[in-house]
Amino acid sequence: MSYPQPFVDKPQRTDVLLVSPWLAPIVWEGTFNRDILNAQYRQKNFVVGVATFAVKKYVRFIEGFLGSANKFFLSGHRVNFYLFTDHPEKVPSINLAPEKRLFIIPVQNYSRWQDISMNRMDIISNHIHSHWRYEVDYLYSMDIDVQMFEHIGVEIIDTLVGTISSWQYTKPRDSNSYERHPESRAAIPHGEGDFYYAASFYGGSVSEVYKLTTACFKGVTEDRANGIEAKWHEESHLNKYLLYHKPTRLLSPEYYWDEELIRPRIIRVKRLSSVRKDLQELERLTLLLGGLRELLVPCSSLDSLVSFFFCREAKCVL
Ligand code: UD2
């Protein structure tokens, strides 16, 4: 295979951090050669699992997720998609590539979206124990309300992998969204914190993801017993876990870009991005929240209303 020679005195990029202080690579466009990685990975013949949830109205995101993942996620490699849904009958039929398989797993729904989101950790840990440890080598958990626009390949594979949040990648640690209340099991003391990791995309070897999901759900359960819910639910617990169990590889915000944000020059590609929730949803919420109109005062246009309703800060207020 022929490719440009690497030189130690010619870094591929000088505008971004390429290695964490604990020597984990941070994956950015322009820092790797996909052909080399593919050739190395093919010799191992690994199977990668992807766990994703589409409960209640989120079934509408299945088509966009699976359609784009079929094209862009680990293209040419073996992938098992595990789709948890309370509406198996609504899963659209999608022609997957021969090396990709879809498993539809019925799951109960919860009235609160926070519970749907938080219980993912428990469900993933149980399925690793009962099935996936025999079926896949690596496992990734992904939000369903996303679409892929560029290849996400074997550069994401490592023992323990976290994605740096697109909302908070330049913020000082004390203004990040960590849970800081010491009563919560997700609490991170002031003055501590590396990066803020998004719960929308994390993964690693099956055994490491088992440890992670089991530990995070234990934290969620203990908080519940004490009448506490961490600021960003299971994401807060994930951040605590990854602070004390350092990821062996970090994905830059290219791997989860939030559509609400303007993309700066350092984010050269948008590989995966959130899908904007739609206007009908906004109308229903507007009706429901009639009494909270004063909250909307800062929002001058319909577009900013949409952003406001679906941004994390609004969810927090509600
Ligand atoms: C953030 C996190 C998300 C989770 C959540 C918890 C990012 C980008 N996303 O997302 O991973 O930590 O906060 O506060 O950091 N779901 C359903 N049905 C529902 C609600 C949720 O299936 O009614 C599933 C679905 O797979 C969805 C995921 O839970 O993708 C996360 O929910 P979200 O995307 O609404 O949460 P969001 O955007 O606040």
From TrEMBL:
This is ABO, alpha 1-3-N-acetylgalactosaminyltransferase and alpha 1-3-galactosyltransferase. Belongs to the glycosyltransferase 6 family. GO terms for cellular component: Golgi apparatus; membrane; vesicle. It comes from the Eukaryota. The keyword Metal-binding applies. An alpha-L-fucosyl-(1->2)-beta-D-galactosyl derivative binds at E235, D258. It holds the Pfam family Glyco_transf_6. UDP-N-acetyl-alpha-D-galactosamine binds at F53, A54, V55, Y58, D143, I144, D145.
